[in-house]
Design brief:
The protein is an all-alpha fold and 65 residues long. It is 45% helix and 0% strand. It is elongated.
Length: 65
């Protein structure tokens, strides 16, 4: 896991907002709202592949096996 709780909550809000826009809007660019699936998926899994090259980790607790 490399996504913390605040980061996760923000991703859920942004993703849900973008998806809602895509589903209810008649605007020609509304289809781009489906990109909201990306932040929702990363929030659900708690892992963001874009953070790896930069060494970013917003999760404070490290899970050890």
């Amino acid at each position: 896991m490399n996504i913390g709780s605040i980061d996760r909550i923000l991703r859920i809000i942004v993703g849900a907002t973008a998806l809602t826009f895509a589903m209810i809007s008649n605007h020609e660019l509304a289809v781009w709202g489906f990109i909201g699936l990306v932040p929702l998926a990363t929030a659900v899994f708690g892992w963001c592949p874009a953070y790896l090259p930069f060494g970013i980790k917003t999760c404070k607790i490290s899970k050890s096996n």
